[in-house]
Design a protein that fits this description.
Elements: H1 8-13, H2 17-32, H3 37-42, H4 46-58, H5 65-75, H6 84-97, H7 103-120, H8 130-137, H9 144-163, H10 192-203, H11 212-221, E1 236-237, E2 244-248, E3 256-260, H12 263-274, H13 284-293, H14 304-317, H15 320-327, H16 331-338, H17 344-350, H18 365-374, H19 383-405, H20 413-428
Antiparallel strand pairs: 1-2, 2-3
Helix pairs in contact: 6-7, 10-11, 10-17, 11-12, 11-14, 14-17, 19-20
Length: 429
């Protein structure tokens, strides 16, 4: 039945067009009414229905049933579902062999997909639904950049499942979703005055300057906060002929890069090494306290120290290639997410920074509180206030004892105990 009703072959076999049309209708009815086809037409799965709808959209509107059957026989491939974990491993092999991705990149993507399968309880490659993908991609607590990255990964993975040689899924459900748009805000940057005050607060912290190397490494060399705890003095070369830091990349773990050491950072690290401080020391409690003391807690944002370093370094040197090497980011990422215009005078002052090394340590809130308790004039207090003072002294002694059991400092306990005994004696009188 190839050709049209008015074609030469049809005119040779049929005297009238009506006869040719009747013959075509008869053959078409015979194909449709063929018994073996009826069970197939009535037992289609949801995935097969989607596949047929997609096929119909691809074919011209005037396609007859013979052409549709020919097209279907030529291009149709049955779905071969596999376990989700197996699909993730096969996808990782495809990324390695076909896309030539690095091993660290492949492992990271496989880990994210495994987490998706675990959270949404996906058992097979053909059971990824639009609803599950939408809930995982547009999770409310995530930023738009993370949502975009999840969308891109799942879109590539599901597209590969649908187009793979053995066709592990009927279609790509992500095609029905909108890609999240990430709006890039201007990076937050500390001024020279804020940076200097932050480092000075770390130096004069009541519990010691343990956090000073952390802040200095991040804001004066561009080392990532996640990379600092892995640093030891063996990774830091303070000799004049070297002056560099060997840094493990936080996003890879295997490759290394070198970060530079400017003059103020060299002075801080040299002082810290002489004081036997660890360059990788980090304490969340001290980190928060120092930021509050510096008045930066509410202004803080992720990577603000690296933003500060990149912005001041570029304004001062106009050397993007060196900055790429020091920070481990591409030129596009640096200009898009890190570098912001800052005054040239601030850049000169930052890389000529001088701290007040002789400044006394700030008195902790606990010591201030104890000094106030010790200064109460007992002779002027009545029994009620004496009893109240005794209770507070006993509470402070209990706090010191608990801290001492954890290996903390017990400074001030003897004086508090003597004060408590004196208050108790006055009450008994």
């Amino acid at each position: 039945m190839s050709g049209t009703l008015r074609g030469e072959r049809v005119r040779k076999n049929f005297a009238f067009e009506v006869d040719a049309q009747a013959f075509l209708n008869k053959k078409t009815a015979g194909i449709i009414s063929n018994a073996p086809l009826r069970p197939v037409l009535t037992t289609l799965t949801e995935n097969e229905v989607r596949q047929h709808e997609a096929a119909a959209a691809l074919l011209p509107p005037d396609t007859d049933i013979v052409q549709a059957a020919t097209w279907f026989a030529q291009y149709h491939r049955p779905i071969v579902p596999i376990p989700f974990a197996t699909a993730v491993e096969a996808y990782g092999d495809w990324l390695t062999t076909q896309r030539k991705n690095e091993e660290e990149t492949v492992d990271a993507r496989k880990g994210v997909l495994a987490q998706f399968g675990k959270e949404k309880k996906i058992q097979r490659s053909d059971l990824i639904t639009v609803e599950a993908a939408r809930a995982w991609i547009y999770e409310g607590r995530l930023g738009t950049r993370t949502q975009r990255d999840r969308f891109d990964l799942l879109n590539q993975f599901c597209g590969w499942l649908a187009k793979s040689q053995q066709k592990h899924a009927a279609a790509n459900p992500i095609a029905e979703l909108d890609r999240p748009v990430h709006k890039i805000d201007a990076p937050g940057v500390l001024s020279f005055a804020q940076t200097r005050h932050l480092l000075q607060c770390a130096l004069s912290d009541p519990e010691g300057p343990d956090m000073l190397p952390f802040f200095a490494l991040c804001v004066l060399s561009g080392v990532r906060p996640d990379e600092v705890p892995r640093l030891t003095w063996e990774d830091i070369y303070l000799e004049p002929e070297h002056m560099l830091i060997e840094v493990n990349k936080a996003k890879g773990g295997r490759s290394r890069r070198n970060a530079g050491i400017c003059d103020p950072l060299w002075k801080i690290l040299t002082w810290a090494k002489a004081k036997e401080l660890e360059p990788g020391f980090f304490s969340r409690r001290k980190f928060d306290r120092i930021r509050r003391e510096a008045g930066l807690f509410d202004l803080w944002e992720k990577d603000i120290l690296r933003h500060t370093y990149a912005s001041h370094h570029y304004v001062l040197n106009k050397d993007i290639k060196t900055l790429i090497q020091y920070m481990g980011n591409s030129e596009r990422v640096l200009f898009q997410n890190y570098i912001r215009p800052v005054p040239l005078a601030d850049a000169h002052m930052l890389f000529g920074l001088i701290l007040h090394w002789s400044a006394p340590a700030r008195q902790s809130g606990q010591m201030v509180r104890l000094d106030r308790l010790m200064s109460w004039p007992l002779a002027r207090l009545d029994d009620y206030k004496l009893a109240m003072l005794r209770t507070r002294l006993a509470g402070e002694i209990a706090k010191i004892d608990r801290r001492a059991k954890r290996g903390g400092d017990a400074t001030g306990r003897p004086a508090l105990a003597a004060k408590l005994a004196e208050v108790t004696a006055r009450i008994k009188r």
